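Q: What residues go here?
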């Protein structure tokens, strides 16, 4: 099994320019991920390239999350806070469950793909909230948000039934964003940490599942 390891440093400027085009060609050329790829016949080469591109895309986002977490952890003790459950109970952050078909036991490709795509759409409002939460890593926050939009579009192209992908209600998202921004400074810091942690876990689970597709 191919190990989960980053393929390169996070580059927010390159992300921003490439993702404005929202084109697969905007991402770095794919690299061989393991022995299995050496055995793929030429007719399947394009499918392999698409899979590798999504894999690399997710890793760029994870690199960005790491940069954001580093800033918030260096600024305060939010990453070690014992009261973070208070904020977590007020958030409806997407999580993977057995019924979503993304785990090895009971894996279902289409059900899992719908869950990943829907979950990323639900995370968008939280990524919007993060845009004004960083100082030195402001570009990274914008790049994570933009690259997530590009990832959603890539996954939508893989889905067999686009109508089954649930889209969050704009009014509900606007109301949630207002509530998050109205929190006191300490609670906003904890909320930021929880969003980044949950998004990282969701992407890591998604990455493992997508490698089975």
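A:
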């Amino acid at each position: 099994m191919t190990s989960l390891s980053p393929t390169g440093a996070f580059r927010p400027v390159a992300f921003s320019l490439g993702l404005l085009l929202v084109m697969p060609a905007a991402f770095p050329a794919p690299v061989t991920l393991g022995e299995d790829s050496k055995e793929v016949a030429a007719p399947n080469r394009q499918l392999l390239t698409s899979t590798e591109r999504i894999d690399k895309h997710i890793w760029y986002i994870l690199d960005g999350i790491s940069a954001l977490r580093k800033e918030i952890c260096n600024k305060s003790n939010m990453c070690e806070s014992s009261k973070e459950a208070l904020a977590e109970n007020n958030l409806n952050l997407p999580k993977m469950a057995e019924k979503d078909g993304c785990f090895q036991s009971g894996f279902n490709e289409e059900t899992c793909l719908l869950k990943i795509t829907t979950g990323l759409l639900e995370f968008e409002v939280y990524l919007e909230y993060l845009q004004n939460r960083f100082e030195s890593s402001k570009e990274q926050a914008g790049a994570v948000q933009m690259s997530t939009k590009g990832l959603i579009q890539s996954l939508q192209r893989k889905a067999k039934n686009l109508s089954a992908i649930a889209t969050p209600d704009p009014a509900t998202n606007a109301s949630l964003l207002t509530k998050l921004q109205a929190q006191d400074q300490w609670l906003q810091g904890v909320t930021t940490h929880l969003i980044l942690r949950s998004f990282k876990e969701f992407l890591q689970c998604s990455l493992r599942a997508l490698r089975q597709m």
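A: Context that may help when evaluating the design: Residues 45-75 form the longest helix (31 residues). Confidence is low (pLDDT under 50) at residues 5-48.
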